[in-house]
Design a protein that fits this description.
alpha/beta, Rossmann fold, 8-stranded mixed β-sheet, 35% helix, binds S-adenosylmethionine, two-stranded antiparallel sheet, 10 strands
């Protein structure tokens, strides 16, 4: 955090003078590596050291999928209306490498954790829009060192800017203009893509239609994430906490979640929620509720 006014002295900011600090500091860095005034170091060691060890254990527990059948889940979420609406403020202003990226911070983190765990060979994005999502997936894959991960994105319309198409070219992202309702065409287009797959469903087509196109091609260990199923998701894009009087919710996500539950219940023998990621921020602590599935057989 930067200081707003550099003309303030250390005393007026309530901090010890440098002279007082140097007297209070021990002889060697090893005994006390950080200035006594640094928050979190009051006891002579960083207060977070204990947490680091716990976090390491958590990383291991995320790596091991904790699969839970959909039937054992409720629609409750640790994210409330106020937080959802606030997340939408950032989502609808979000860009990546200059391209519109229609994803909120929490979803992006869920994807990041999932990508690190799964190390997908193919990411299939359903719903390209401006292309920012596909570019984000491709650069995230690079950052994780997933050199053999291909990103394929499809949409019924082409709304990708020239600048974004140029980034697709540089990053090897493949765009396919097609309708998800054309199950046979979609199957032909994706059948030979290497597994494991991470499918990001962001086109809001009925989940039964999505699964008709994809399920037969998906294998054990693949993942699908259905976005925007939290019941406080705004009914229309660009509604957010800055205008709560006009924030309407419940209809869009209610319908979408109904369809997701229907489609995945029919396939319950082969699909389960990976709660280690779905519940990373607490129970359904995400902008998608009960919507991060892995194929179990
Ligand atoms: C929310 S946007 C996608 C946002 C993008 N994934 C991102 O992260 O920036 C939804 C997209 O789904 C596409 N879509 C809607 N119906 C579709 C269909 N039947 N088949 C393929 N794409 C469809 C729309 O054209 C739209 O561009």
């Amino acid at each position: 955090m930067g200081w707003a006014c550099s003309s303030l002295t250390r005393e007026t900011r309530g901090l010890p003078t440098r002279a007082a600090m140097s007297q209070a500091m021990p002889e060697t860095k090893e005994e006390h590596p950080c200035p006594v005034s640094t928050p979190g170091w009051e006891t002579g060691a960083w207060q977070g050291n204990v947490g680091l060890a716990k976090a390491q254990k958590l990383a291991t527990s995320i790596a091991e999928a904790r699969t839970v059948p959909l039937t054992e889940r409720t629609r409750e979420s640790t994210i409330d209306l106020s937080m959802m609406a606030r997340l939408m403020v950032g989502k609808y202003r979000n860009t990546w490498r200059g391209h519109v990226l229609l994803k909120d911070a929490v979803s992006l983190h869920h994807y990041q954790v999932l990508m690190e765990k799964l190390r997908p060979k193919t990411i299939i994005e359903l719903g390209t829009a401006g292309g920012g999502g596909a570019v984000w997936f491709a650069t995230q894959a690079q950052a994780l060192g997933l050199d053999d991960c291909a990103v394929v994105t499809l949409d019924i319309q082409d709304s990708i800017t020239d600048a974004c198409k140029s980034d697709f070219g540089k990053l090897g992202v493949k765009f396919m203009q097609m309708d998800l309702y054309d199950s046979a065409g979609v199957q032909r287009a994706i059948a030979d893509l290497p597994h494991p797959w991470l499918v990001s469903e962001d086109c809001h087509v009925d989940a039964n239609v999505v699964m008709q196109a994809l399920d037969d091609e998906m294998i054990k260990g693949d993942y699908i994430v259905y976005e925007d199923t939290h019941l406080c998701t705004p009914d229309k894009s660009w509604m957010d906490a800055e205008d709560m009087d006009n924030y309407e919710y419940g209809k869009f996500a209610g319908q979408k979640l109904d369809r997701v539950e229907e489609a995945m219940s029919e396939r319950a023998a082969a699909w389960a929620i990976d709660a280690s990621i779905q519940d990373l921020y607490g129970y359904n602590g995400s902008t998608f509720v009960n919507s991060l599935f892995t194929k179990t057989c």
